[in-house]
Amino acid sequence: MELAELEIFRAVAREQSITRAAKRLDRVQSNVTTRVKQLEESLGVSLFQRDSKKMLLTPEGLRLLDYADRLLALADEARQSMRSDAPSGPLRLGSMESSAATLLPRPLGSFHARWPDVELKLTTGTSQALVDAVLGHRLDCAVVAHPGKGAPDDIDLKDMGDGLDGTYLQTEELVLVLPATHPPVRRPQDVTLHQLAAFARGCTYRQCAEDWLEQAGDDMRRRLSVIDLPSYHAILAYVAAGSAVGIVPRSLLAVHREMAHLQTVPVRTVHTFLVKRAGFATSACTAFLRELRETQQGQSPSSST
């Protein structure tokens, strides 16, 4: 089993098409087809269910894809660890959407300007989905929110997944946002709406909002429904329309100044971390963390690797 075969297999699995995978890899279709067949023959299993439109993974293909992600990520890490010069190669970064909008723009810009040879790929998602992707070797590192309370030093990142390590970045204040016409709210019992606009399960902020609202008692627990939405634009639009309450970090409202009229109620603080697999280290990941922390501190990033 060669890394090149695994890379071709993974491209076909992701694109669900020989044609699109060949284009992505800059290979001829016949070569991609041949390499996939050779891999199936060497393993003695069918990796794809073939029909006229899509190449879908079989159960055996799904298992191999997990190994392929890990093996290819480990190969990239090994290549980078051999280089003592400037950071280069891929850096697969994950982030909550709120952090991508408020925390990352400056460090991402300065990082790209300083290390143009790093191929940066940014993926957004819920905290738990990002953690799963880091532990599954689909991401190198990710900016996530931990649901635990207390000081950052007291937080155990392994609560979100075994084998997780990370660095504290900042503490966010979560606020419940309500329509401007909603009666004043000082406690969960004052909330009259029973719909919460939030991201899908796995979002730390959503869980914090549910926990806070359910302090209102059994009636709220029974009647509370959550509207899964894909973005903060959609969440705030639902709230502004008077259809639901929402949960956002206060820093995000500075980006959406047109929503300044909404009512806000403090819920709790949540700590943000840059997480990675324990023991994972590449020059690109290390340089990005340094850029992120120095940008936060208002310092000029150093040129050392």
UniProtKB/TrEMBL annotation:
Pfam families (alphabetical): HTH_1, LysR_substrate
Keyword terms: DNA-binding, Transcription, Transcription regulation
Domain of life per record: Bacteria
Domain HTH lysR-type: 1-58
Gene3D superfamilies, per the entry: 3.40.190.290, Winged helix-like DNA-binding domain superfamily/Winged helix DNA-binding domain
Record's keyword annotation contains Transcription regulation: yes
Family to which this protein belongs: Belongs to the LysR transcriptional regulatory family.
PANTHER family: HTH-TYPE TRANSCRIPTIONAL REGULATOR (PTHR30126), HTH-TYPE TRANSCRIPTIONAL REGULATOR GLTR (PTHR30126:SF40)
Protein name: LysR family transcriptional regulator
